Q: What sequence folds into this?
């Protein structure tokens, strides 16, 4: 049996590091084909040459879109003058990366300024967040933390035109089928009138708006919370927060359970734990690295104790161990929901640890 993964290496794009937020965020998002900021270095597959010249390929795409029921108006508007964006393919191929330890990564992403901005934003939107949190049964702190990490609290959600980015990646051979599907999904969104072509922007890899939803996630999980008929994840806070909350709710967030706790392990615990519990072995990479779930009583028997403060809850919840750099965590099922937003421990822990520092939103008191 292999010991639990002892060290998680986090790859960060160099440009993203330099810019602080924006480029890191560029590729992060639920369902995003790039795990973005937290992606493990990825093998680059040399693509074959596209079989058709781009204009002919585009003509065929227009035909296919019409056959899929997308309106002639949308096809004409969105697919007439599309040009490839060379930098998109470049980003997809080269993904300049360097590795940071998870400790370094968390330190960078959870600086004092981020925490204070998160608290300020939670206060500013308290009334709305309280309402959404109650309706979807997702903590407001988690919503704010995801929003903050995905778009720097709404300040940056990507400048790439989504249709052109997806067309570029669909024409490229590396993952053509997946991006072609997402392109059709993006056209469906335009067809519904949720957003104008000019405002449909996001990351180079197609993740859109402040929650950084891929078009397929948008179609499934975006919400029109302010009921103006448009699911505006680009500029309407009510829709942005409710869409994030809905994504988590639909992926099984359980109210009142929290995400997990920082723990400390006794000396020499690794061998004992590795012998007792295997890594999960299935799911996305970050999930595979987690231990099997076990009862808190079992963890207690293995010598695992809370790192500080609150004791482990006395309940029948099960937890998995996540080893992250110098730190260890026992995580509950809700942590797995965060991994579904973006399957990387660096991301899920950043969200969880930021959320822990944001007081729950309460509606303002009425006089
Ligand atoms: Ca709306």
A:
């Amino acid at each position: 049996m292999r010991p639990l993964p002892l060290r998680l290496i986090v790859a960060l794009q160099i440009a993203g590091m330099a810019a602080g937020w924006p480029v890191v965020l560029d590729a992060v998002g639920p369902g995003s084909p790039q795990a973005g900021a937290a992606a493990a270095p990825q093998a680059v597959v040399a693509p074959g040459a596209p079989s058709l010249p781009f204009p002919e390929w585009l003509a065929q795409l227009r035909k296919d879109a019409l056959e899929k029921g997308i309106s002639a108006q949308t096809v004409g508007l969105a697919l007439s003058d599309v040009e490839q964006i060379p930098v998109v393919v470049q980003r997809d191929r080269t993904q300049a990366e360097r590795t940071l330890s998870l400790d370094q990564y968390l330190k960078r992403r959870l600086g004092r300024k981020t925490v204070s901005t998160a608290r300020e934003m939670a206060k500013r939107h308290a009334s709305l967040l309280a309402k959404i949190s109650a309706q979807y049964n997702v903590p407001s702190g988690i919503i704010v933390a995801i929003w903050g990490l995905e778009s720097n609290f709404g300040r940056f959600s990507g400048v790439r035109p989504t249709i052109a980015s997806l067309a570029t990646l669909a024409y490229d051979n590396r993952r053509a089928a997946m991006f072609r599907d997402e392109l059709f999904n993006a056209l469906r969104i335009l067809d519904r009138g949720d957003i104008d072509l000019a405002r449909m922007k996001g990351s180079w890899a197609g993740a859109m708006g402040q929650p950084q939803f891929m078009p397929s996630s948008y179609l499934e999980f975006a919400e029109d919370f302010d009921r103006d008929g448009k699911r505006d994840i680009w500029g309407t806070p009510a829709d942005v927060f409710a869409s994030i909350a809905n994504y988590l709710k639909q992926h099984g967030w359980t109210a009142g359970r929290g995400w997990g706790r920082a723990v400390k392990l006794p000396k020499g615990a690794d061998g004992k734990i590795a012998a007792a519990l295997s890594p999960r072995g299935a799911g996305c990479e970050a999930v595979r690295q987690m231990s099997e779930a076990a009862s808190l009583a079992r963890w207690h028997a293995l010598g695992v104790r809370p790192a500080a403060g609150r004791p482990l809850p006395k309940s029948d919840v099960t937890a998995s161990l996540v080893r992250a750099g110098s730190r260890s965590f026992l995580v509950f099922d809700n942590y797995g929901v965060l991994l579904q937003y973006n399957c990387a421990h660096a991301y899920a822990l950043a969200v969880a640890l930021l959320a822990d520092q944001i007081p729950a939103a309460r509606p303002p008191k009425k006089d």
In short: The longest strand covers residues 318-324.
